[in-house]
Amino acid sequence: MAFAARLLISLEAVAANWRLLAAASGRATTGAAIKADGYGLGARPMLDTLAKAGARDFFVASWAEAAALGAMPAGARLAVLHGITPAEMATAQALGPDVRPVLNTPAQVALWRQTGRPADVMIDTGINRLGLADTALLQGMTIDTLHSHLACAETPAHAMNRAQLAAFHAVPNPARRRALANSAGIALGPDWHFDLTRPGIGLYGGGPSAMRDRLLPVVAIEAPILQLRDVPAGASVGYGASFIAARPTRVAITALGYADGYPRAMATFGSARVAGVACPLIGRVSMDLTAFDVTDAPPLAEGDWLSVDFDVGAAAAQCNRAEYELLTGLGRRYARVYT
User: Fold this and answer.
1) What is the structure's pLDDT at 2?
2) What's the rounded mean pLDDT across residues 96-122?
3) How many CB atoms are located within 10 Å of the residue 175 CB?
4) Active site (annotated) includes residue 52
5) What is residue 89's predicted lDDT score, i.e. its pLDDT?
6) Residue of 39, 239, 258, 262 with catalytic role
7) How far apart are the C-alpha atoms of 199 and 207, rounded to whole Å?
8) Is residue 129 marked as binding?
């Protein structure tokens, strides 16, 4: 009997979502963000799947993430979004010319200039997060891609989108390419696409509402039944006695909890399914265990698996959390099964 929940991750869906976002990017080349361990789904499987689909530009946050990936597929390039520090120079040099920093500060520019190697650069156009104020410091350097990042792309009508677009156009371009749009930026339209787009959340089934109905779900959760209990009417289940059985109830206790990244707020609307029969979540989501009412389900045994409903967009909206947070919070205790 397995005692850990598992994630079923569809690599076919990841590839299909990339192709959809690439088509929506028009003439721009389409890359892929695989930072945060591929948004919690496994960076190396995402890299290999997306490279096979046609992606050639990939993005991680740190040099530790870059090193953990291992060798890049033939023809692929990897950009490290947080830039470079003196302590990371040896790693950066060892990973070779296909892996480069995205320079964000004057100190990073000065440090990387010593290598004589190409880099990417982030220009701040109003998000006031990472990025240089201008490109004047870059004279004499080989810059592959000049990036900026949108603050409000998820809100298409927000005035910030047009303001940042104008600011990006106004920056002198010392680079081979320009890149501004993430998944939501792609949905804003061709004006934001430039030469390269950087989808992330959209690859994994979340992201811009304008494309949501065409993006495929990527991840599903299955949880093993540790124990089946027959609870009489009037008895409670779980911490706080928040659920009181209105009838004799068959309860499945599963190895799934908030330590796995399954949100506690799912207690108000969560459910699982057995042969198409809905099985409501009952009581609280605890650290390691969650209970489901399987009274109306076909017969079950301890060790069987429940398909736990987990639509990323719906769960994020119901839990008042970002889709990014939900995906990257899926814990290491899950077995990850790629299909």
Assistant:
1) 63
2) 96
3) 23
4) no
5) 96
6) 239
7) 9
8) yes
